[in-house]
Amino acid sequence: MKLDINRHATTPIAQQLEAGIRAWITAHGAGGGRRLPSIRRLATTHHVSRNAVIEAYERLVAAGLVRSRPGSGFYVADNAAGLATQSVTTNGLEEVTNGLWGLFNANEHTLKLGCGWLPSDWREGDDLTHAIRQVARNSRSGIFEYSTPQGPLELRSLIQERLRPLAITADAQQIVMTGGGSHSLDLLVRMLLEPGDVVFVESPGYYNLFGLLHLQRVRVIGVPRLADGPDIERLEALLTQHRPKLFYINSVFQNPTGSTLTPAVAHRVLQLAEQYNFKIIEDDIYADFQHTPTTRLAALDGLSRVFYLGSFSKSLSSSLRVGFIAAPSCWVQRLVDIKMLTSISASRFAEHVVTTMLQNGSYRKLTERVRTKLSNQMAMALTLLKDADWEIYTEPAGGMFVWARPPLDVSPDRLSELAHQWDVSLSPGKLFFADHQPTPWLRLNVAYMQDPRAKSFIEAVR
Amino acid sequence: MKLDINRHATTPIAQQLEAGIRAWITAHGAGGGRRLPSIRRLATTHHVSRNAVIEAYERLVAAGLVRSRPGSGFYVADNAAGLATQSVTTNGLEEVTNGLWGLFNANEHTLKLGCGWLPSDWREGDDLTHAIRQVARNSRSGIFEYSTPQGPLELRSLIQERLRPLAITADAQQIVMTGGGSHSLDLLVRMLLEPGDVVFVESPGYYNLFGLLHLQRVRVIGVPRLADGPDIERLEALLTQHRPKLFYINSVFQNPTGSTLTPAVAHRVLQLAEQYNFKIIEDDIYADFQHTPTTRLAALDGLSRVFYLGSFSKSLSSSLRVGFIAAPSCWVQRLVDIKMLTSISASRFAEHVVTTMLQNGSYRKLTERVRTKLSNQMAMALTLLKDADWEIYTEPAGGMFVWARPPLDVSPDRLSELAHQWDVSLSPGKLFFADHQPTPWLRLNVAYMQDPRAKSFIEAVR
Question: What is the rounded distance in angstroms from the CA atom of residue B248 to the CA atom of residue B205?
Fold first, then answer.
């Protein structure tokens, strides 16, 4: 093994070693079980410190590419080839996190057409500021103390009521407060999955989840997402080959296609879940953008094998970090235990603020206004895209996202360049596919499309 | 296998099955590899649903006690015996979480002599309320938007300055904001440890960590904590038998003994870390309770193999969930990636509030007042305990905790009963030992000891 190490680069030696060994494994180590050079040997042949080599090997072990056998040395992991060639590639984690970093690091004046949240100038400050001041003034416990491990009963009861119009019958005891949608997913992934397990995801689907599953070292299989939900035919075919523990579904205004699950598909998915005994995570974090409720998996299933996720990050505030899980009763205790061991509790202050706004009705009114705005914006965006001859995957009935591609046959990289010229940032379409294949499809956030730069960009790639 | 199932109990059948199989494994399955009854067989012989059996097996697999071999059935895991007899017992997780639940669920008027936070009436609201109102009024991004993955640079720079008097030289780029001390630990444990790895902890030590390590399925070995830090002789002996990846040390006002690491022990620990190549987590969440800084591991080591943890939960607010990690440079990117995948970001609002209080000096003044109060309280508590002939493990120089035991030869259960009679709640001493052995030693929080009920209880068990 001869790695290319540059002692004068700003990248630490350990990271260079890691990248080099990773590349070597991809090129040579496909079989797994192959022995890697000893720490001493690598250090000597490359004139680097033993600690740098140890560091590099540790990171590769942590990434699941290398196995350490005590007293014997380091070997290419059996599943390294699998990790490299499977749906989520070995550097799937980096691709996802780089994508996210890109969004967070973009110049604040750049038009974030590809991002997953509402524009800052859409957010209405008054009601939230009022609630924050009220909690700060009236609740000593709210500003000082840990919350309870499961979250305040008062808030969980209010959420229970909010689930009723969706026909989801959850006891407050089945609701666990979390620090937002990603935290909910993380708790569930840790509780339900083992390394090596198979998980079905929707493809295109939520890319941060792909990275999270990669971190947990599970096998990720993409099920195509159609206009009415997951592709049932393909799902049935995949179930003859794989035994998933879990299927993750974003029911309403799916990220990124904007499509919504129909009752027939929901019913069929649950039948298959029964037959093949897998659990379902129903991610419904865009629920409050919906005017008239449609069928939820959790409603049909009665929270028996469905874990239902909700959040206040998309509608109210991404800063406060408040979300929840409605879980099958028998899993609640373990879920709360894991939450407690990993974070003690969520923010009592943030929970009190949300409680206040649910109680005084300001949250309801705020989401009504956002819904109306989003509907208008969606209509405008669809017209704009159609007029510019973009292909629309499916026409969303609401929400933030439309999944579309330009008529021009242009590479994804060229598309990003063009966007950059118009001071527009995109989320690369490939991030949304479980196999990270390059694609000209893009997730567009309609809330940003009234900006003239959006129009210019969209018309430029016609 | 004949399990005792009560169909009329309120405990779900799946949980009863899980407990029954767990007990059976403890009693019969010590060797590992032993085959367990099939799902169908257990369901038929016990007249329960197959789903309940599946649920029970899944939970046992998740707990590491059972292995599933696809197409072949369920077997006692090879390490089930290890898990059962090792330092952290199979139900270590439950013991820890039950202990925590106990603290959170205690009647709010009960005197929480065993708890790990300041009394509500010690908390000063004005400065915090003021900062909260200021952020709510002035910062739209603060109330609405995600924070950056690593946390605001402004706050990280302020923390960098706060570390300087401790002689810890960290660049702001090495500091990662988290949702508090437990969240910091969780991120590090996930990044650095694999199932089966060995971790050294201090014993007695921080019990929530023992549960977290159990969750990660690592082997936990306790190193006795003495008045000047970890027992170096014992550490050296243990290092001849085990190869730990990590050693967790609570440097200042250790939880639960209140003792503080001396420079000589710190130096020796780092020499051994170098020699045996393990990393160190230096938990310094009580730092702001200290009048005059003492030697930190991170200061001697220059953040090379030490990960340093700080928090605002103990001094300012447990509700806001703000903590940080100062990490070796080469680990920062991966740490932030894991944070991002599992939670997107921490609360920008809470980060802004802490920033405000660090900038306007109110945090410094507040901690000065708390320090003085705690010193007085510690002196009073030590006098009270000595007068009542309690044995004091070591006299803390400050902080919240004293580790003491009553002169009366009384069982831990009887001790809790007596406390209950005086309306006092305790944290059982055994929770603080890695092996959970019963002990009459107790962690007492001196901030609660001016209450007459504390005096009554302490004098009652004389």
Answer: 9
